[in-house]
Amino acid sequence: MDNSPVVAQPDASVVESGFQDDSNPKQTGTEFDRAMMQRCLELARRALGYTSPNPMVGAVIVKDGEIVGEGFHPRAGEPHAEVFALQAAGERARGASIYVSLEPCNHYGRTPPCSEALIAAGIAKVVVGMVDPNPLVAGGGIARLRGAGIEVVVGVEEEACKKLNEGFIHRILHHRPLGILKYAMTLDGKIATTTGHSTWVTNQDARSEVHQLRAACDAVIVGGNTVRQDNPYLTSHRQGAHNPLRVVMSRSLNLPQKAHLWQTAEAPTVVLTEKGANTDFQELLRKHSVEVVELTPLTPDQVMGYLYEQGFCSVLWECGGLLAANAIAQGAVQKVLAFIAPKIIGGVHAPTPVGDLGFTTMTEALSLERVEIRVVGSDCLVEGYLPSR
Questions:
Q1: How far is residue 171 from each of residues 52, 212, 324, measured CA to CA in Å?
Q2: Left if phi > 0, otherwise alpha if psi is -120 to 50, otherwise beta: which for 139?
Q3: Please, are residues 209 and 216 in contact by the beta-carbon 8 Å criterion?
Q4: What is the dihedral of CA 219, 221, 224, 229, to 10 degrees?
Q5: Residues 49, 45, 35, CA angle at the centre, nearest 5°?
Q6: Residue-level pLDDT at 156
Q7: Any residues with CB less than 8 A from the CB of 9 and at least 6 apart, and which?
Q8: Integer CA distances (angstroms), 212 to 189, 190, 259, 281, in order
């Protein structure tokens, strides 16, 4: 990944428009403001999967309608987006406007406050995508900038900024990573045949989308049965892209001695089990550089607590129906991505994506909120959020 700041070439200058789009009263800022904030988000995505526990942030500095400096936050412990943008702009930052997808920080952490750097650079205007939910910031950066006489506009492309960092926001507010349940099923609701065969339910376009999703997450979780039946890789399958930590939950460690997940050169693997389980197999895993962690009891809630302590923001559940049901029941899942293939395989005992939740009436069903539906190749993707607990 190229972490160097990006500066627009002179012929890439943009003429600032004072046009205010009143067709959507919820929109904040000018059309130009929104275009620059979208550029911030584009920059921020360059660090997809690398910034946790920090958010992804992009920054753009504009003077006289021209982009004079850009930057993004590459990973935790390294300078923030504003610092890279200021370095790229140099003296041209004085009297300029900076667009930043997240409120500049106003506290000393691993790096100095960005609010003070902007003041020292002589920035005249700051356009912020969203207020930082972190209590250490939470409006403090905006207040500091305004107190220094700098014009501050807040809420430009706010929903897009929040969507980009929904894992970070959930981590801050709930002290747990955002749990995302992903599954692929046939039109009749099956994830495999009665024999357990599941290669492939969806088309290549849908599988490529899943690979991108993995690259954006800090960890991906499966149960022991998925390892035994599918022998997955659980990588992003993309050169140079981030690979998540691969997590296997198994109480008994009744797992195959040879599996793709035990090959850790490309991506790390951790196996979570209960205290004292199959110590001989634990030793075998460690010889393959697979980390083994004992958690008692081994539950989805406990696992999410463990991954929170690791500094993770987003966790992908790619497990079978039984573990998926337990994860939903324990509040370890907030978001669902269901890929639906136009195929019918039948089978009374063919596995389904979510096991028994104990519901007996349709009124108990969990109705997804903020639902988006789109076509991916010949498949359909339904994306939505479980009701808040």
A1: 10, 21, 20
A2: left
A3: no
A4: -100
A5: 160
A6: 96
A7: none
A8: 24, 23, 23, 32
Query: Is the entire prediction scored with pTM above 0.70?
Result: yes
* Two tokens, residue 336: 């669902």
In whole angstroms, what is the distance from residue 167 CA to residue 76 CA? Answer: 15
pLDDT reported for residue 200: 84
Active site residues: 82
Over range 43-67, report the average pLDDT: 96
Separation in Å, CA 97 to CA 32, 55, 64, 178, 239: 12, 22, 9, 33, 36
- With a cut of 70, say whether residue 139 has pLDDT above it: yes
Q: Which two tokens stand for residue 265?
A: 């050169």
Within 8 A by CB and 6+ apart from 127, the residues are: 29, 33, 36, 37, 97, 98, 99, 100, 152, 153, 156
Helix and strand numbers (H, E) in the chain are 11, 14
Per-residue b or e along 311-336, where b marks 16 or more CB atoms closer than 10 Å to that residue's CB: ebbbbbbbbbbebbbbbbbbbbbbbb
Name the DSSP class of 154: E
User: Using CA atoms in the order 213, 219, 220, 221, what is the torsion angle rounded to 10 degrees?
Assistant: -150
Q: Residue 182 carries which DSSP code?
A: E
CA atoms of 182 and 389, how far apart (whole Å):
20
Strand bridging mode 219-223 / 245-249: parallel
- CB neighbour class for 66 (10 Å; exposed up to 12, middle 13-18, buried from 19): middle
- 23-49 average pLDDT score: 87
* pLDDT value at residue 243: 95
pLDDT digit string, tens, across residues 211-223 = 999 999 999 999 9
The pLDDT assigned to 26 comes to: 64
CB 212 within 8 A of CB 240: no
Q: In the sheet where 379-385 sits, what is the strand order? A: 291-294, 269-273, 245-249, 219-223, 314-317, 178-186, 335-341, 379-385, 369-376
Q: Which residues contact 90 (CB under 8 A, 6 or more apart)?
A: 69
Side-chain half-sphere exposure of 252, counting CA atoms within 13 A:
5
Q: What's phi and psi for 183, nearest 5 deg?
A: -150, 160
Kindly give the residue spans of alpha helices, DSSP state H, lying in 187-235.
204-216, 224-230
Kindly report the backbone phi and psi dihedral angles of residue 130, in degrees, each rounded to the nearest multiple of 5, phi listed first: -150, 155
